[in-house]
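Today's session is about reading a structure prediction critically. Students often jump straight to the picture, but the first step is always the sequence itself: look for stretches that repeat, for charged clusters, for runs of hydrophobic residues. Only then move on to the predicted structure, which in these notes is written as discrete structure tokens rather than atom positions. Here is the chain we will use throughout the hour.
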Amino acid sequence: MKLLPANRRLNSVGRIICLRIGVTMHLIMRTQFDELRLNDEYEYSTNDRGGKKVVKIYKDGELIAKKISIKNSVQYFGVTGVEELLEQV
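Below is the predicted structure for this chain, in token form.
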């Protein structure tokens, strides 16, 4: 079991729940993440702290997806309902 920061927990189906902002995120495919990142309607920010790199994608100021890279591991997460945003593209 992975240790997560105090403001996050992993539920039984592998979803990360951000307790501070009340957003449930689940794993998405790289292609889905790239479609969101390359879309001009959405903004994105990057953060590089030591060995951990995070790319976050926002729509109207709300977090909709993020990519976490630690060493050789890369994970892509999207909020519940991100598939609907992809259908609109």
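Discussion point for the tutorial: Strands lie at 8-10, 16-18, 23-27, 43-49, 52-59, 62-70, 73-79.
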